[in-house]
């Protein structure tokens, strides 16, 4: 019974990491990338997202609650999992460890980012280009955001590889190798989008 429950939780954790959390990450990076076109372009994109119908419902049930479960259960996995050298070999073992490390970094980053943006917005601050420009004007915060973005993107991309395996989409060594190339390509592409976006606020 306990094994069935843990199997279900791990599948749910994997699924939520891709849908909706991974999709939200991608969408968030794309919206932020409008900053590369200037303050007005970013502010229009941010205002569009703010005016979405049922925004609070979407934020709570499609973003925050799935993210909360993924984060809490992810911490449990990070601190209880054993290295899997014998199962996946040297490269995959490194990916396994990096997945846990970037998960912890991403959690710290997301909590801080939500505090600086969504929580401040609840107190009356306006989430716009100037807000982000003021945040990353501090070189330490700029470095923190770059590390946080790269960690989040890696965690999503490598998690996507694990999702394909755990859900039986890639079962052969060849398909898993191809999946590695695809997911690392996603990591590079989204990292470029995210870093270009944050540097546009400098």
Q: How would you summarize the topology of this molecule?
A:
Blueprint (H helix, E strand, L loop, with lengths): L1 H17 L2 H12 L6 H12 L4 H26 L4 H38 L6 H8 L2 H28 L6 H27 L3
Structure description:
- The protein is mainly α and 202 residues long.
- The protein has a single domain, classed as 3 helical TM bundles of succinate and fumarate reductases (Up-down Bundle).
- The chain has helices at 2-18, 21-32, 39-50, 55-80, 85-122, 129-136, 139-166, 173-199.
- It starts with a helix and ends with a helix.
Q: Tell me the distance between the termini.
A: 53 Å
Anisotropy-based shape: globular
Fraction of residues in helices? over 70%
Number of strands: 0
What portion of residues belong to β-strands? under 5%
- Rg of Cα set: 18 Å
**In the CATH hierarchy, what is the architecture at level 2?**
Up-down Bundle
| Annotated CATH homologous superfamily | Fumarate reductase/succinate dehydrogenase, transmembrane subunit
Main sheet record? none
Instruction: Report low-confidence residues grouped into runs of 5 or more.
Output: none
Question: Order of SSEs, N→C?
Answer: HHHHHHHH
Estimate the mean pLDDT confidence.
93
Please write the CATH class name: Mainly Alpha
The CATH topology turns out to be 3 helical TM bundles of succinate and fumarate reductases
Category by helix and strand content:
mainly alpha
Q: Provide a count of the helices.
A: 8
As for the number of domains, it is: 1
